[in-house]
Amino acid sequence: MVEERLTLEPEVQEIFQCIDSKRNFLLSGGAGSGKTYSLVQVIRQVIAEYPTAKVACMTYTNAAVKEIEERVNHKNLNVSTIHDFLWDNIKHFQKELKAAIIALANDEDAKISIGEDGSIPDNYFDELEKGIQYKEYLKLKEGIISHDELLLVANHLFEKYPKLSAIVKDKYQFIFIDEYQDTNTAVVDIILNHFKKSEKNNLIGFFGDAMQSIYDDGIGNLDEYKGDAEGDVKEVKKAQNRRSPRRIIDLANRLRTDGITQEPSTDEKAPNMMDGQVKEGNIQFIHSANGDVSLIKQYLTENHGWNFENAKETKELNLTHNLIADKAGFRTLMDIYDKDLILSYRDRVKKYIKNNAIITDFSQNTFREVIAVLADGKVGRELKAVRPTASMQTFIDGNQALYQTALNYNYEVFSKFYVNKDQLLDDKKQDEDDENKKGSKRDNLIKHLFKIQNSIVLYQTGRYNEFLRATDYKDKIVSIAAKRILKDNIEGLINVRNKTIEEVINDAHEKGICLIDDKLEDFKARNEYLYNRVREVGFCEFQKLYDYLEGKTPFSTQHKTKGTEFNNVLVILDNGGWNKYNFENMFLNTGTASVLERTQKIFYVCCTRAKENLAVFYHNPSPQVVGKAKEWFGEQNVIPL
């Protein structure tokens, strides 16, 4: 085995020194360093050297789970998301689960709310038929917890029951965590603190990059746990970069703030090598007084050969979906799911009732009547508190028919309507070959529309067998005549022209392509307000949203692009009104520390997606920003247009 280790990467050899001395370790490596390659090497070697040991590998996404499973297929290896790992290890302890949820709900600093008045009794969940369940959605009264609650409950259980840590450590002698920086602090607390309460032995390994911690609920770094003393986490740094050409590596090193300086890989087979030499690559900082991004794309196309029609090779990265909606053509749907200020006003009213401990039973009143009761007898500041804000009033003035509909809803029904942009946008792909992740947050209306459009696309692209399996007409295909009818039906459906979403839903149902099922009917009943808004939108707009979500456009948000790579990357530096980010402060190294750090990290992630060419566009920067850009990009690479 010693000879076998000599063929491993130097960093992996160093990791095995930690394993030999029973030390927990952290492999830190920048973008493109091949951390997943190192993780796979470690797993394979552990399985070879410890043939009876069980190994757990946790990662952040289902796509990463699939990638690791494809590289290492062994009966002793269990690869899962962090949430699935936790649930798998606590789901059988139903009595303790129920007690934990009740205890957390009754805590004075409660982060879990069951939605009942007063203290929750110990026997609250005793009548549940299926016990506590973990799902994509939250229904605590029915014993269904979701992602956030799972982390809180798991942490509570591991803290209270040291035997649970012993059970997990007995089960898995090695636990490896990929993309550790995105791991919730509660998970790290379990693994590095609560595990110590058990005298059983196991070994923990972390893999990741603190500079790529771009989610607010991730731990970010393990600085408080790192060190050389017994019990500390030993850090192993991986400095090589296998992805990026030299100019992008140099830029990335200027952006890093954690002491890691990357160097080009010396492996001649690395993607950033050609004929034994590191590729130079191209970087540009483009600025203009005109904010028209189409002119920038035209410049890159005409002068540098970029092809924005090729979504696999070229990406335009924007900070938010809202910044993409107009360009990709789904603005109306985006506004319905993300900018309905009538619903914001409803939430303002709900909050007022809760904060003022109003116990009036409004279950038989309309929303209009509730507003009237709350406003009755009030003047000045008190009246203002139950009226719409200025922005809400502007929205209401422009959507009077919608507002009148809202006012006439039963308040109890209207107060439960839930709308969130994740219902529209979840499960974004970078390209068409990506696998859908499990448990999409899309609502059942959007899922139904996807089913219709999938049938259209499968037929249009000649994938007839897949089309036949996808369509609800498949059981009727018993003759050539039936196939001919199906052909006429799908071709009649394809030409949507200016039909609304509801017209296409009904058309697809009548033609037997996609039947209106119980899930859609239930959605219409429970979310009437939302359905009535969406049904009037042109189906052709949904088709543009479909193309965006299926990775058929050059657009991506900057967060969603993490973990991917493209030949050509255009980064748009526009915060879209999101005050968590400030690109000017990033260049000038000023402003609030948390905003500065968050912006530095998202910019680092964006720049390091490029395998060949990187362009950054900044609309109307100050002279100071241009000066810093010349330092980072080189004066010859700062282009005014």
Please give the structural blueprint.
Layout: H1 2-5, H2 10-20, E1 25-29, H3 35-49, E2 55-59, H4 62-71, E3 77-81, H5 82-90, H6 94-106, E4 133-134, E5 144-145, H7 147-160, H8 162-171, E6 174-178, H9 185-192, E7 203-208, E8 234-238, E9 240-241, H10 246-255, E10 263-264, E11 273-274, E12 277-278, E13 282-288, H11 293-304, E14 314-318, H12 321-328, H13 331-338, H14 341-355, H15 367-375, H16 380-384, H17 390-398, H18 400-407, H19 411-415, H20 422-425, H21 444-460, H22 464-470, H23 480-494, H24 501-510, H25 518-526, H26 528-534, H27 539-549, E15 555-557, E16 566-572, H28 583-588, H29 593-607, E17 610-619, H30 623-633, E18 638-640
Parallel strand pairs: 1-7, 1-8, 2-3, 2-6, 4-5, 6-7, 9-10, 13-17, 13-18, 14-15, 14-16, 16-17
Antiparallel strand pairs: 11-12
Helix pairs in contact: 2-3, 5-7, 6-7, 7-8, 7-9, 10-29, 12-13, 14-17, 21-22, 21-23, 25-26
